[in-house]
Amino acid sequence: MSNTAASFSTGAAAAKSFDLSAVSSPKRWLLSEDQLRHCYEALKVFKGKRFGSPQTIHHEFQILEARRMEALEMRSRCTVALNSVHQRKNRYTDVLPFDDNRVILKQHKDYKPSAMGYINASFVMTSESVSRFIATQGPLPNTSEDFWEMVLQYHCPAIIMLTRLVDGTYAVKCGDYFQAEDGPREFGNICITTKWIQTTDTSLILRCLEVKNKESDVSPLSVLHIQYPEWPDHGVPKDTVAVREIFKRVSAIPPSLGPIVVHCSAGIGRTGTYCLIHNTIQRVLIGDMTALDLVTTITTFRSQRIGMVQTMEQYLFCYDAIVDELEDLISVSNSHGGSH
User: The Tyrosine specific protein phosphatases domain covers which part of the protein (predicted)?
Assistant: First the structure.
């Protein structure tokens, strides 16, 4: 098991329950003097590039594209995913989890004996001090139970869904693994109950779900499910407001809890874009200024899941969202009289 996967296992074992009411409204930070200074410093760098030197950003993405992993190397690192037993569990044949940091489900001797605990999902992180993620594909009808087993096994407190179930061309982008306004839903051994639903002004759909293994005495796990259906496949939203609202809600969850599940359809483009924005802002706030180097962060993410952040447009959107959020953090703190 890789260091990345090992750290997720230990983190999950230590997970405690988290009060979801803390994320029912977006978090408003009042920054310390140090945090304010870090935000100003980061903002100067990101804004300078975005508005003063956009060709630099284009050059950065060209560097990333030149380093893209070739299909042959991917196949050599994804031997479990390519096992014929597992191929029907992959939504796309060219987006597969690497052997060394794939999520491994516990074996079920009774009714799922083989399969090596396979799910198309990858552990993604930069350090223990900020949120850890599970980046995964939108569940298929035949992998919904596996998906919920993963959420239970790793005590995942939140799921961020960055896709519709069906896009504008009627192409299915994700199986319906959660919707149940009229009562519980069952996926094999797992029962999902929707406790509440709310829609925000920014078109986010929030759900509090209770997830339980029917054969276990363990009390249900409360999970915050945030769906952002307006984010187009391969594209970017028209503004950064909703993405930053997701960040404000989810970053209230302590990193010491289980990993945050992020998925779109393939689990690399929109998923990688969100993970980069969230990770960068969190690291700036703790004074980790290596976060200013987005190329290195994406290179790390791509070593953990192929193709994270797919397009130049998505890469530019990362800069826009980070700039907007840093400006917002600074302005809220300044309006409250500076540091606290």
Answer: 244-316
Domain ranges of the chain: 3-335
**Distance separating alpha carbons of residues 159 and 259, to the nearest angstrom:** 9
Residue 21 confidence (pLDDT) above 70: no
264 annotated active-site: yes
Give the DSSP letter string of 284-319.
HHTT-GGGG-HHHHHHHHHHHSTTSS-SHHHHHHHH
For 273, residues 6+ apart whose C-beta sits below 8 A from its C-beta are 236, 309, 314, 315, 317, 318
And the tokens for 190? 């797992």
Name residue, tokens 């519980």: 184
Phi/psi at 284 (nearest 5 deg)? -60, -45
Whether 23 shows a pLDDT value over 50: the answer reads: yes
SS (H, E, C) 250-285: HCCCCCCCCCEEEECCCCCHHHHHHHHHHHHHHHHH
Q: Are 36 and 330 in contact (CB under 8 A)?
A: yes
37: confidence class by pLDDT, cuts 50, 70, 90 = very high
Q: How many CB atoms are located within 10 Å of the residue 283 CB?
A: 21
CA distance 66 to 51: 24
Nearest alpha carbon to residue 43 among 320, 338, 333, 334: 320
Compute the C-alpha angle 238/157/289, nearest 5°: 60
pLDDT at 182: 74
Which residues, at least 6 apart from 189, have a Cβ–Cβ distance to it below 8 Å?
108, 145, 149, 213, 214, 215
Q: Assign domain 3-335 one CATH number from 2.60.40.420, 1.10.580.10, 3.90.190.10, 3.30.9.10.
A: 3.90.190.10
Could you report the per-residue pLDDT of 55-98, keeping only the tens digit for each? Answer: 999 999 999 999 999 989 999 999 999 999 999 999 999 999 99
**Is the separation of the CB atoms in 190 and 152 below 8 Å?**
yes
Point out the catalytic residue in the list 156, 174, 208, 264: 264
For residue 183, give the amino acid letter.
G
- Show the tokens assigned to 323: 């700039």
